[in-house]
Amino acid sequence: MAIKHGYKAMLAEAESRIRAYSAEEALARLNDPNVQFVDIRDVRELEREGVLTGAFHAPRGMLEFWVDPESPYHKTVFAQPKEYIFFCAAGWRSALATDTVQRMGLEPVAHVNGGFAALKAAGAPVAAKPESRSDAKPKSV
């Protein structure tokens, strides 16, 4: 089976339509109350690599549903008048995700070139993934 429109073409198209920040440019916005960082990595990546302090985790597979206010899965974090800066591990998924949510009407949006790896290398504040309710161990009685 030949792929007619591969990931390289999709990335090039997305990158031509979206804003991209370097890790340093993104980190300069980290404490801005009008900016929300959105981590779209898989939960296993968060457990393995850690999380960016202050970022909201929105798994890539749920992003469109969480962004759309008409969805039963909508998250109010995406209804705020903020700039949303998306990142993944290396910047590919976040470029595609940023293009998608921008086409959905979420604005302003951007993504981080190089993703979490670039943020980490630039000295971003990284913490261990907090335990979620499903991760929590039952309390002994």
TrEMBL record:
CDD domains: Polysulfide_ST. Residues 31-128 form the Rhodanese domain. InterPro entries: Rhodanese-like_dom (IPR001763), Rhodanese-like_dom_sf (IPR036873). This is Rhodanese-like domain-containing protein.
